[in-house]
Amino acid sequence: MSTLSGFKNYSKALLVIICFVLSLAIGVIRYLTGPEWAISAFYLFPIILATWTAGIGIGILISLTSAISWLVADLMMGNVFSNAIIPYLNETFRLFVFLVITCIIHKLKTALESQKELARTDPLTSVLNRRAFYDLANLELNKVRRYQTPISFLYLDIDNFKKINDNFGHQIGDKLLRSVANTIENNIRAIDLIVRFGGDEFGILLAETDAESATQVVEKLKKKLLELVLDNGWPVTFSTGVATFISPPSTIDEMIDTADAQMYFAKQNGKNRTRYKVIAEEKKTYSLVETTS
Predict the structure, then answer these.
(1) Alpha-carbon dihedral of residues 259, 263, 265, 266, nearest 10 degrees?
(2) How far apart are CA 103 and CA 93, in angstroms?
(3) Do 160 and 81 have their domain in common?
């Protein structure tokens, strides 16, 4: 992961250098072709490219470099102006145009990234939505198949959530859901995935996690979540189902459905429970463990 990040940073730096060289090269071409050719529009290419790839700060720098490049070319050509300040005024206006374009490109990219992020996250809790989760989970499943590492999935349901909406109002219900999502996110690893399936149900994919490690994660999460609802006076608990696959599951749906079935069993048998299922397909063995909180 760090190697990929380093490569991206290297590529971005190289692209910025190319944009910088291009802005200077256009000034040289301006000097060589003389005043008859209007080529200032060519500066837009390095300005737009730099802003889009490296951000508004670099875009402003390339804009400034471009304006200076054009000004130096004009002065070196020895053009005669009615007033010595005219070339400087011209370049100030040109710089203003470059900066406006830089801001437009920056805002456009920001808007597109924002829309992309909204399309991948649950609007209430800001965790992954189902579609984004499936995309990332399939990538993780491919890694599991390649390296033959265990994988666990936790399905969590908030017990008596309807009573929160009925007795405290939907605003408090929404606050509870956001708080649960934040608590989970703050207590899992960066490589783990959290998804809201809708309503009061969440899923957590625990990458490279065997049954023992999954148990530790679940116990930690249940402790934090119960502390959360106790501190806020919310009369809810949590039913959870955990499926650990020693061998890779065939599909993401198989993994989710297995954990969901364990959660449903826990909920139907008293709530506030955790039921585990360990699946080692090559040995055709299944291990069930049930705990209460």
Answers:
(1) 140
(2) 15
(3) no
Determine, yes or no, domain membership for 125.
no
Cα–Cα distance, 240 to 147 (Å, whole number): 28
What is the predicted pLDDT for the residue at 87? 77
- How many whole angstroms from its chain centre is CA 283? 38
Examine the pLDDT at 133 and tell me if it is beyond 80: yes
Task: Report d(CA 78, CA 90) in Å as an integer.
Answer: 15
Does the structure show a pLDDT above 90 at 183?
yes
pLDDT of residue 208: 92
Count of helix runs (H) and strand runs (E) in the chain:
9, 6
Burial of 231 (0-12, 13-18, 19+ CB in 10 A): exposed
What one-character DSSP code corresponds to residue 158? Answer: E
Beta strand residue intervals within the chain, DSSP E? 151-159, 193-198, 201-206, 237-245, 273-280, 285-292
Examine the domain organization and report whether 87 and 137 are in the same domain: no
- CATH number for the domain including 282? 3.30.70.270
CA 96, 99, 101: angle at the middle one, nearest 5?
A: 110
| 30-39, 102-111, 206-215, 281-290: segment of lowest average pLDDT | 281-290
Report phi then psi at 291, rounded to 5: -130, 160
Query: What span, in angstroms and rounded, lies between the C-alpha atoms of 260 and 269?
Result: 14
CB atoms within 10 A of CB 34: 10
pLDDT score of 122 more than 50: yes
Q: Which two tokens stand for residue 292?
A: 């209460």
Rounded Cα–Cα distance for residues 90 and 60 (Å): 18
CA separation for the pair 155, 277 (Å, rounded): 12
Looking at the predicted structure, is the pLDDT value of residue 168 above 60? yes
Per-residue pLDDT for 62 more than 80?
yes
